[in-house]
Amino acid sequence: MPISVSFIKRLESVSPELRQVLLDLLEEVERQREESVTRREFNELKEIVRELAQRVNELAEAQRRTEEEIRKLAQGQRRLRQEVGGLARSVAYALENEAFRRLPEFLRTKGIEVLERMVRREVGGEEINLFGRARRDGEELLLVGEAV
Length: 148
Prior knowledge:
By secondary structure, the protein is α+β, with helices and mostly antiparallel strands. The protein has helices spanning about 5-10, 15-35, 40-110, and strands spanning about 115, 120-125, 125-135, 140-145.
């Protein structure tokens, strides 16, 4: 901190002991002033805090939008799971029908004769995909099948 000429002249008029005390006091004031936050620095800090608050608000809004998109994706994924499940059931049913159509011929190649039309049955609340009677080497058989 610059010392004015008039202050230096006044210091010359005081006793050396008092002059030293005043100079020490002046040095301490200068040291504390250097360590303290200036108004400009304080205003800079306020601006930084304002910018950070704005960024936090922007991040909170981005988080809200992200959560909304995740919610929409989860709903879409649930619908997709239902649709794929329905498609899987349809394909399984089509394959079962094809098996019904071709199985008697295939069983004949293995020496098994289908005696009656094969049917689907429900036993104990569970669907049996293929149920019928057959014969091999004179022995009657029950055909029971499950498509997996």
